[in-house]
Amino acid sequence: MAIRSQYIRQLLDAVDNNNANRICIYQEENEQKLIDIGIEVHKYNTTCPFVERVWNRTQQLGDENYSVIIHGKHNHEETRATFSHSQKNAPSIIVKNLAETKYLVDFIDGTMKKDEFMNLFEGKYSEGFDPDVHLTKVGVVNQTTMLATETNEIARLIKEAIAKKFGADRLKEYFADTRDTLCYATNDNQQATYSLLQSKADFAIVVGGYNSSNTSHIVELCEEKLPTYYISTANEILAKNMIRHYDHHTSSMKTSKNFLPDKDKVEVILTSGASCPDATVEDVLQTILSFYDGVKPVEDVLADFN
Fold first, then answer.
1. Is 198 exposed, middle or buried (0-12, 13-18, 19+ CB in 10 A)?
2. For 42-89, how does the pLDDT look when each residue is reduced to its tens digit (9 = 90+)?
3. If DSSP codes are grouped into helix, strand and coil, which group holds residue 6?
4. Model-level pTM greater than 0.85?
5. On the CB side of 28, how many CA atoms lie within 13 Å of its CA?
6. d(CA 296, CA 208)
7. Catalytic residues
8. pLDDT tens digits, residue range 164-216?
9. CATH entry 3.40.1010.20 includes domain 49-182
10. CATH 3.40.1010.20 holds for 190-303
11. Domains 49-182 and 190-303 fall in the same CATH topology
């Protein structure tokens, strides 16, 4: 069974030597906890290569005496795992968004006091982190499911602050270029969504897991432009006039009526999270098409583009 890292403690409290369990361990310290209570651990590395590339980059940054700024949600499994790896090799700190990044910039600029900074980022920096020392030579990496555009903007703000403090001619000494750590699969999906949103549409449906960070970011992009319904499978489309969908702002399910406009030609943006199976998206498409008569087969539509 696969168990999220936040449930590891419950597992450790419940499991004994007579139980054989297969678990997914995202943070390495949990492995030792299992060993300590006498459970034999077999390791299989199924880490996403893009995540592993970020981890390797943090080690390189540490070896070159850079501190690591991680763009991510500090309680997200991937971010905690990246932080766990990073802090072994480099002073590390997590920023969630542009607003938190501006606090870093304020400190680098000298407009924020150290005590205020430490309070704002409590629980989000490595042991012994000293912003006076560790925000002088930095590199930025990200939780791979965050918006790449936001990561780039965070890096730009910090880069400008470093250049202002030490001089643009010495920027390479104090700011590491880490653009190669961005996940191209997530980035491509986000860029495709930006392109879709240039089209006229009545509403959007985003398909993906409700605990998926990259899917929730796609939802956020769509919500800025038009009504958006976040669903996990075609089963959430209850009828032609009713859909059950996830509200990621409140972490709750909602049911909406009359989501399909009452007109002959309905324009829909249909997209998904980066890891959502194509078959799941296809099911959603076919469910929507089933509500209309005289629908042209998908194969014929695709043939028109060849």
1. exposed
2. 776 667 777 888 888 999 999 999 999 999 988 888 888 899 989 999
3. helix
4. no
5. 10
6. 26
7. 78
8. 999 999 999 999 988 767 777 777 888 888 899 999 999 999 999 998 878 88
9. yes
10. yes
11. yes
